[in-house]
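Late entry, benzoyl coenzyme A complex.
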Amino acid sequence: MSGINYSEKIPNNINLANDRTLQRALEHWQPHFLDWWKGMGPTDFQGADVYLRTATSVDADGWATYGTVKMPDYRWGIFLADQQSERTIGFGDSMGRPVWQQVPGEFRSTLRRLIVTQGDTEPASVEQQRLLGHTCPSLYDLRNLFQINVEEGRHLWAMVYLLHAYFGRDGREEAEELLARHSGDADKPRILTTFNEPISDWLSLYCFTYFTDRDGKYQLKSLAESAFDPLSRTCRFMLTEEAHHMFVGETGLARVVKRTLEVMKELGTDDAARVRAAGAVDLALLQKYLNFWCSSSLDLFGSEISSNAASNFANGLKGRPDESQYEDHVLRDKQLKLDTPDGVQDVPMLNALNEVMRESYLKDCEIGLKRWNRQIERAGHAFRLALPSTRFRRSIGSWVNQPVTPEGKLISREEFDRRIGEWLPTEADRAFVRSLMQRVVEPGKMAGWIAPPERGINNLPVEYEYVKLS
Ligand code: BYC
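Prediction complete; structure with ligand written out below:
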C-alpha cells in the first residue's frame, strides 16, 4: 500500500488508476497546476538541474530519495500515510466512534473551508518566494529554497486531492480558485494575511520558514487528529516534508548569528553601524525581523476566543497537536484564564483552543532562540534574542491593534507610534538587508552575511554543485 507508483501520470499511493472519474478530474487540473508553476513559481530557474529529494514510499525508509531534476519535471503526486486499522475519533463529543471515510453532510462546508484555507497557504508561499533565487547566498541555499518550493507545490496537490475526491463539483471549483488567488494581489489575495506579505530577502525567508512553517507544523498536526480520516492521513505525510522547511529556517538563522558574531570578533566591536558597514546583519536588526515574522505568524492561529475552534473540536474536525498527550479529550467542563486588554477573563476551554495551540507553538519557537542565544553568550556578548509577546502587533484577537511593546507592556499610542521603528524593520533596515542580497553561485562559496552550513545535503559536501544553472 505504501509504495508509490511513478509510472502513472500522477504518482500516487491511493490506487488512482482504479478511480477513473477522480483520475480524469485530477489529470484535467494537472496542466493548470503546471501553468501556475511556470507563471508563479521560481522565476528563471525552470531549466536548472536541481538536486532534489522525492518520495518513493511513505514509510520512514522510502520517502526520501535524491536525484537531479528540472523543477517542472518534479513528480508532484498524491501520497497519504498508511491507514491505521480501526482508528477511532480521538477527541470531541463523538470520541471513540469510528473515524469517517467520507465527509458527513453536516460538516461538509466547514471541512471544505479548513482544507481550502490550508491549501491556499501552500501555493501562496511559493509565490511569495519566487524572486529569491536571484539573490541566493549559495547554491546550497538555492537548492533548499527549491526543495521547499516543490514540496509546497506537493502540499497543494495533497489538498486538491481531498477537494476533488470528497467535495464533488464545489471541490473542483475550489481547486481552480487555489490557482487563481495570488499572494499580495489587490483583487484576489491569499486568504491569510501572512501569506500576502512579501518575502523579498533571505533573512525574511529564514524567519518565514522558522516561524510560519512552524505554524504549518502545528496546524497540520491538529488536522492530522481529524475524524475525517483521508485528511488525517494526508496531513500525517505532509508533516514529514515540513520538517525540512523548519530546518532551513533554524539553521539559516543560526548561520546568520554565527557570521555576525565572527564579524563582531574581527572588528572587536558590537557597534551596529560598524557590523553593517562590514556587510553583516547586526543582532538588533535580526531581532526586528524576528518580531515581524513571529507576530505575523501568531495571527495564523486565529482569535484567542473562537467559536470556530470550539465547534471544530467538539465535532471532531480539528484536534490539538498530539492530542493523545492530554488527559481530557472532550473539554466540556474546563475553563481557561485569558489575559485580555479588559482584564483576565474565564473562557470555556473549547473556545480557547487557538490560544492553547499558540502557546505550545511558542514553546517550540523558544528552542531555536535558546540555541542562538547560547552562541551569542559563548562569544561573550550580553545581547539576547527574544520572542515578542503574543500581545505585540496583533491583527486579530483581543489584542488587535493595541499599542503594546514586544515585552508585552501596554503603552500610549503616541509612544508606540514613535518607537515602532525600534521594534520592526524600518524602510532603511529593509533597504540595508536588500543591499546584502548579492547572488553567490560558485559551488561552496557563501555570501558574506551568512556562515556556511555545518554539512551538505544527504552526506554530500557543502561544495557540491546542488544546482546546475543552465
Ligand atoms: N488572516 O475564529 P477565528 C502552512 C479569519 S501555515 C486572515 O479567529 P479560527 C504553511 C478566519 O478564517 C498553516 N483571516 O479563527 C506555512 C475566520 O474567517 P471565517 C495553515 C484570518 O477559524 C508555510 C475569521 O477570521 N493552516 O501550512 O478559529 C508555508 C475568524 O476566525 C486569520 C491552516 O490555516 C488570519 N491570520 O482559526 C506553507 C489550517 N485568522 O472562516 C504553508 C486551517 C483567522 O469566519 N485553518 N482569520 O470566514 C484553520 O484551522 C483556521 O481557519 C485558522 C483560523 C486557524 C486559520
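The radius of gyration is 23 Å. Will revisit in the morning.
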